[in-house]
Fold this sequence. Notes:
Keywords: Membrane, Transmembrane, Transmembrane helix
Helix content: over 70%
Mean pLDDT: 75
Largest sheet: none
Number of helices: 3
Shape: elongated
Transmembrane segments: 12-36, 43-62
Oligomer: single chain
Distance between the termini: 15 Å
InterPro entries: TAXIMIN_1/2
Amino acid sequence: MGGGDGGDCRPLGFLIGLPLSVVALIISLTGVIVWIIGTIMSCIFPCCICLPALANFALSLIKLPLNVINWFTKKIPC
């Protein structure tokens, strides 16, 4: 029943990726702090070009835990 040709049941990849996702979560919290500081600094110094790049880098750090889990679940078959 249910067939295995299209289901997304990859619990092993999720479990293996979970510890790395916790580390990525800590890094993403650092990204939140960097993003807040970058946003405040871009309001104070609007002509500085490096601050938007810093904010984009911080946003990529914030998305890191989801990217880690997605990568692991795609690598390990059901």
